[in-house]
User: Fold this.
Amino acid sequence: MAVHVVGISDFRTSSNPDDIIITYSLGSCIGMTVYDPATRVGGMIHYMLPLSKISPDKALVKPAMFADTGVPELLKKVLELGASKSRLVVKVAGGSQLMDQHKVFNIGERNFLILRKILWKNNILIKAADVGGVISRTVRFELGTGKVTIKSSKGEVEL
Amino acid sequence: MNLKDKITAKISSFPTLPVMVSKLLHVINEPDAGAADVAKIIQYDPALTANVLKAANSAFLGFRSPVNSISEASFRLGTKWIYQIAVSSLIFSNMKKPVAGYDLGEEKLWKHSLSVALMSEALCTLLRIRDVGIIYTAALLHDMGKIVLGEHLVDHLGEIQSIVDEQEIPFEKAEDKIMGIDHAELGALIAERWRFPDTIIDCIRWHHNPDDAPQISNALDIVHIADSMSLMEGFGYGRDELQYRMSEQAVARVNATSAILELALSKTILTMEDIENIVKDMPTENSGREVKT
Assistant:
């Protein structure tokens, strides 16, 4: 068994049912898990910004920094490992904001918005989401069962 | 003695900043100070010299030929860079310990502080704001009040959180209501005791509420914005999480667009890890540098 930790602007995939993938301290960033229950292949991304157009050179070095470059990269990788797009179970967490952050730089909200757009274009549905609020979240993903749990100051919940 | 007096009494036993920081700060504050002046100060301290050279020779800078001296380092990398590495490593030992109350684990306060400093630097570059040295230092120290307030906070967390929830006020306002003082004010009192420049003291005191400051400055707005962004991104979260506000006016005052803020974020994440590792790897025997007041 291996525990893979996903840092900010990073993603991890696995086809080993004994593995666990974890990401810590999700604020306005988004953590997304994808999982094929039939082949037990899955992955998790922790991206920080919506669009790579602000800095295409950084997207080349770290595609998982941005939703529009990182999410397709993660999907490609799990499909290569044997996941089927039609069976993918997608769960999303994060997208927090500061208090009363309606207008100024609401990166959390935009991060989630752009993800829904990308997934919609790819005909992929979001099975469950725990987004928004002024909390920080830790996401734990079990490859064997596909179980995703979210830990925050509000307690621990299964997504 | 009320709670506030009890807390502020602790300031006198707060360790002083390494003398080297004050010296370096003094030099970069001088309008006609140059690379030679900074190098001169660093060279007196063998451990610090070793740290700066190690940083200059680290893989991520990718120099083909090794950097052998401080003056060579400042020639290749600039005085500002040397200053930042030196100050970051000097302050590391004061900031690395876990902070009770805020639930900040080992090196978490340090990580948050460093991210705010690097974010401030990125914003200054993108917005063409000068005085980076002062702003960088203020950003590194903006939350040091948490070190003092944290140990008293432990017994009052429930009360603080419930008035944050009930009255929908930010965490520092709730601290002030329950404890009689907040971490920003405490940090400012420490900086005053250290006889720091007023700009730095103001940055620390008003970092959550720049619009309320008697004197608004670029430095203050930058530290406020950088702190808000670091909180959003989750660099070193504590118990207070994202329960703060970001000032729209501060963003407007420095003409920061969304694209600029995003660029600053992407720049910070790329340098953060490298700088963090360089500083963490440094020898930390600061016994010769620290004195108690």
Remarks:
- Residues 3-158 of chain A form a domain with the 60s Ribosomal Protein L30; Chain: A; fold (CATH 3.30.1330.200).
- The interface with chain B takes residues 8-9, 24-29, 48-49, 54-55, 58, 61-62, 65, 96-101, 103-105, 107-108, 134-136, 153 of chain A (CB under 8 Å).
- The helical segments of chain A are 56-61, 67-80, 107-121.
- The mean pLDDT of chain A is 95.
